[in-house]
Design brief:
Length: 283
């Protein structure tokens, strides 16, 4: 049997629901292995076709979506035409509600969102688009190895013309903050703790704040090119900023807040958005 592999084929940036952590932003690196007979070019699959073919399926199935474990008892799904409403109950009784176009949600078989469950779903979908000589495919999903602070965050960018407009997609992101030319690990650690499993929301997208069963909630809603989006979260999982939550504006916010606490220092923030990309802000 002939095998072809492609490491670091793409990165999946998405969000998922967890019974303990709630709404979690995640970034997984995808490696693939293809097995099969050689074609008339002496190849299992032309490298020039591997990435666009497989990346397209991954993007359509999971990337920039909210992943919901279909078989978890906390999941409450209601589909009405091209709309979907997702209800979710955390272990401590607090709730989450997400409403969006159907294409913004990935319903994954199983009781938990794991690399193995998402890989199995992607492998099934990919077998439908690969050439006949390819007899098997393995998708391996893994987190980036990060030596230092990082945080999981979720956001939505209503002005974005692509899939970033979806109100609940996210990233697992490293963070570097320099103060007067040297890494300030205490600042990095403080922000990583503060933004652990956080929703970075835009103040103007808040449409309601209320208390239910003694729990404060914040509801976001906006219209975007793909349709209407809404998200209700426990307020203690939300961090509000006065701007949109692009990575450029996130880096600027982190730099401004750090500068306010250290006005006599030069602050340099390198904020990542998932793997290998992000923004710099210097104050």
């Amino acid at each position: 049997m002939n095998h072809l592999f492609v490491d670091n084929l793409t990165v999946i940036d998405f969000a998922y629901l967890d019974p303990r952590r709630g709404l979690v932003g995640e970034s997984w690196i995808a490696d693939v292995v293809l097995a099969g007979d050689l074609d008339d070019q002496g190849m299992v699959f032309d490298f020039g076709d591997v990435k666009p073919t497989i990346k397209r399926v991954i993007d359509e199935c999971v990337d920039h979506r909210l992943a919901v474990p279909a078989d978890h008892p906390s999941a409450n799904l209601h589909i009405n035409g091209d709309r979907i409403a997702v209800g979710w109950r955390l272990e401590d009784g607090r709730g989450i509600r997400h409403e969006s176009p159907r294409e913004a949600v990935a319903v994954i078989p199983g009781k938990q969102i794991l690399p193995s469950s998402v890989s199995a779903m992607l492998e099934r979908e990919l077998r439908n688009v690969l050439p006949g000589n390819v007899t098997d495919i393995e998708v391996h999903l893994r987190e980036e190895v990060i030596d230092g602070p990082y945080y999981h965050y979720v956001h939505g960018l209503k002005k974005h013309k692509g899939n970033c407009q979806r109100i609940a997609h996210g990233h697992r992101s490293r963070l570097q903050i320099h103060r007067d030319g040297h890494r300030d690990h205490s600042l990095e650690d403080a922000w990583a703790r503060r933004w652990r499993d956080i929703y970075v929301g835009t103040q103007e997208d808040v449409v309601e704040q209320f208390v239910e069963n003694e729990t404060p909630y914040t509801r976001f809603a906006y219209d975007a090119n793909q349709g209407e989006f809404a998200l209700t979260l426990p307020s203690n999982t939300v961090y509000l900023i006065d701007s949109d939550s692009t990575v450029e504006l996130i880096a600027a916010h982190l730099a401004d807040e750090s500068k306010a606490n250290h006005p006599d220092s030069e602050i340099r923030v390198k904020a990542y958005e998932g793997v290998g990309k992000g923004a710099l802000a210097i104050r």
